[in-house]
Amino acid sequence: MLNIRNERRWFLILLGLGIAVRIATAIFNKGYLALDDYYILFFSVPAQSESLGLVDNVQSVPEIRSLIPDAIIRFFAKISYLIGFTDPLNQIQFVFVCLGILSAISIWIGYELLKYLYSETEEEPKNYTQWIPLVGTFLLSLHFLMPFVSTRSLIESMSAPFILGSVYFASVYWRSGDHTQLFWSLALLSIASLFRFQAGICAAALFSLVVYRSIQERKRKDVYLFLIYSVVLVILTGLPDLVFRGSFHSSLRSYISYNMHHSSEYGTSPWYAYLPTILGACLFPFLIGKYDGFHWKASYSKLIPALVYYGFFLALHSIIPHKEERFLLPVLPLMLLLLSPIVAYWWRKEKKRRISIRRFLFFLVNFLLLGLLSFFTIQNNTIELVRYLNSHTEIKQVYVYKDSIPHLPVSYAYRTPLEKYELVETLDENQQPRIKGFDPYKSCSAALIVRKDYVLGGIDPDPPWILMANFKSSPLEEFAVSLNPNKNKRRTSLYLYQFQLCKQAEEDPSKTGSAVF
Description:
Elements: H1 4-28, H2 35-42, H3 67-82, H4 88-103, H5 105-118, H6 132-142, H7 146-150, H8 155-176, H9 179-195, H10 201-217, H11 221-245, H12 250-262, H13 275-281, H14 296-300, H15 304-319, H16 332-351, H17 357-375, H18 380-391, E1 397-401, E2 420-424, E3 446-451, H19 452-456, E4 465-471, H20 475-483, H21 485-488, E5 494-499
Parallel strand pairs: 1-2, 1-3
Antiparallel strand pairs: 3-5, 4-5
Helix pairs in contact: 1-4, 1-6, 3-4, 5-6, 5-8, 6-16, 8-9, 8-15, 9-11, 10-11, 10-15, 15-16
């Protein structure tokens, strides 16, 4: 029997676990999900760089992005430096910890919303509905995607708590008609849009709820208030660009213009491309079965605002030709909220059995994926290479074979800049890299980087180039490479060869104040 005291205790346990796993993920997983994720770090870390002021150098932030996400990340990075973290890696970990702790508010919002929606029920006490708030708390805390994406500097994941908060107030408004709740719902949605502009489509979802309620009650006041609130919030959210860039909503206008002209250059996908992602995130195979006694209408009529928000957001992103899985992250907590009644049903149904294969496999797969995503670094090959160069300042020239390194995350280091960073297209007949102007007797500080697939294909330099280090990928990335080697070859291991013919020059212990490379 689940009583109020036990439920509150389990909520606090799940909340504590969610925060603890987020902090652990922030510390042990130093990777980033996408280049957009990294570029926010790039403009913020190392915090001691003179070119990375808190808000004074706003020109460094791309015109198509709001200033707010970068200002927040830069603020955390500066705080980490002021309290004594000089290593860029420690600064990045501090930023990730702060983001993880702040994102935990989604757990509390989700629990309070589900508790509000499902607290009044005339069904039997042992019905599955009493478990929905705790199941939602579990999913928001320990679903395999949440700790990792919640701790990255992604504008998508940073917008998620505000969208969830907007749904909370929209749900209260939907039930009570309180205009104050309508304002707060729209206000939080406006903040979410400052992080991820596409979150603004949820304003259309909220407006549809307002219009429907106004028609039902034959009152137009709510529509007028919505329009007034919208005008006020549009003005307020345009002020940062006006103050720092001299143009009202310049980032939004630039973003729309850029995507209209360049979106298709990043690839196009069919409208249904997100379906496998959604099914995978839901762990769909474990939800297949007969739903005897599941009250679909009673369960999901309470979640109408969440359903409308999610539906509008998904419909817009399904229409847009260019699709990436991370584009759905703003509504990931919403999806987990909508999943809660179904998971609660199976939790309660399978609890009657002494041994539940379904429940065992659900937890096994979820926590296995949680461990792989949370504690193994994504982009580990290039990050470890940069960390190696950070500690081996004797290396002053880096040569890269062809496209072995499409992107070098230099924010993970703070050292004397490299003298050279050049591409090498071929090896000669002696298995030596063809480097223009290369003097073997003055190149003890040179290093050559070759990707694993090239090495396996025969690109293995002979002495005096000596293999000094191997920077491996994470298990998930290695698995991705095995599934699609051509598409994911950039994720394979990297090999560093160092030139050893001449006498090794002594390492210069001094470091300049410039950023990296």
